[in-house]
Amino acid sequence: MTGKVVTITSGKGGVGKTTATANIGAALAADGEKVVCIDADIGLRNLDVVLGLENRIVYDLVDVIEGRCRLRQALIRDKRLPELFLIPAAQTRDKSAVTPSDMVRLCDELRQEYDWILIDSPAGIERGFRNAIAPANIVLVITNPEVSAVRDADRIIGLVEAEEKGPARLVINRIKPNMVRRGDMLSADDVLELLAIELVGMIPDDEVVVISTNRGLPIVLDGKSRAGQAFRNIAGRLRGEDIPFLSMEEDGGIFGRLARFIRSGGD
Amino acid sequence: MNSFLERLFGRETKSAHQAKERMKLVLIHDRTDLSPGSMEKLKDELIEVISRYIEIDPDSVRIDMTQEGREQRLIADIPLRANSRRRVG
């Protein structure tokens, strides 16, 4: 078995890398794939809380790399999704505790046993980012439809190309359909035209994301949420399935449709 | 009231449109690492070099950066002077 390494990165912080890593990982595991998520944000660990596994950490990524434990001991198995594992980041160290070749070596070992190795990259373009993309087969760049996030995504896409890890694929997160309709938010098409790389997912802004991270439960386990569906679709596309993109319009039931009908002037 | 009327008649530019136009320019300069100032300098030097060989109208020279996908291209449009005749060696 030779697993694929997928690095999730963005340049700008706070656009949804960790949420995307947790949910794409959970969606792949729910489909029966064997998945390990690595939190590469050393010093600013968060993937553990988003996945609800924070109470089960004994060893971390730096312990494995520095040989204080065996790889197996640092792998935390998710009890709800038995095919999903986490290697948490160290919290009391910094990015310099790991090198790009450490990450390559670790992933080569994990590839033997896992179908997918998902790496949650730290923000920025320094060592942490280079560690995260060094072993990647596929790089997903996450952005929001806002000028600062789009600009940083463009920078990252260039750096991924320069490191010969390209072409990166794009995920546009936190799209607000109401604002797009009013002409007050860049549409997915606008962002795609600016960044000019392949689109692999669009995720509507959804309150369910905050609620599910509060609880430490991946959104993809919620069958009704549109954001959850969007993440499941990304997982499917990574597996090579041809899945049409979700419309960003939330349905909103009869009242939502009626309100839209009135706003659009009845056409 | 004014802005209300502008909105009513759709004259006010939508903020998303502004964002897109601004980003187009920002990304071109980010990707090429060429500031608008250096671009002007490049243009002046280009005009100077070409003028050594052929007569051109410096005011009508246009140099633009265009974008196709992630590929950047420098396009120079340099009209020759109408009365410029080839020198015969």
Strand/helix succession of chain A: EHEHHHEEHEHEHEHHEHHH
Assess the beta-strand content of chain B as a share of residues: 15-25%
| Element-level helix/strand string of chain B | HHHEE
Described by strand count, sense and barrel closure, the largest sheet of chain A is: 8 strands, mixed
Total of domains of chain B? 1
Provide the CATH architecture of chain A.
3-Layer(aba) Sandwich
Overall 3D shape of chain B? elongated
N→C terminal distance of chain A: 54 Å
Chain oligomer state: heterodimer
Instruction: Identify the CATH homologous superfamily of chain A.
Output: P-loop containing nucleotide triphosphate hydrolases
**Major sheet of chain B: size, sense and barrel closure?**
2 strands, antiparallel
- What is the helix fraction of residues of chain A, given as a range? 40-55%
* Poorly predicted runs of 5 or more residues of chain A: none
Distance between the termini of chain B: 71 Å
Structure summary, number of beta strands of chain A: 8
Strand order of the largest sheet of chain B: 1-2
Reconstruct the topology from this structure.
The complex is a heterodimer of chains A (267) and B (89).
Chain A: E1 4-9, H1 17-30, E2 35-39, H2 47-51, H3 61-65, H4 71-74, E3 76-77, E4 84-87, H5 100-111, E5 116-120, H6 127-133, E6 138-143, H7 147-162, E7 169-175, H8 177-182, H9 188-195, E8 198-204, H10 207-215, H11 226-238, H12 253-263
Chain B: H1 2-8, H2 15-32, H3 36-53, E1 62-68, E2 71-77
Antiparallel strand pairs in B: 1-2
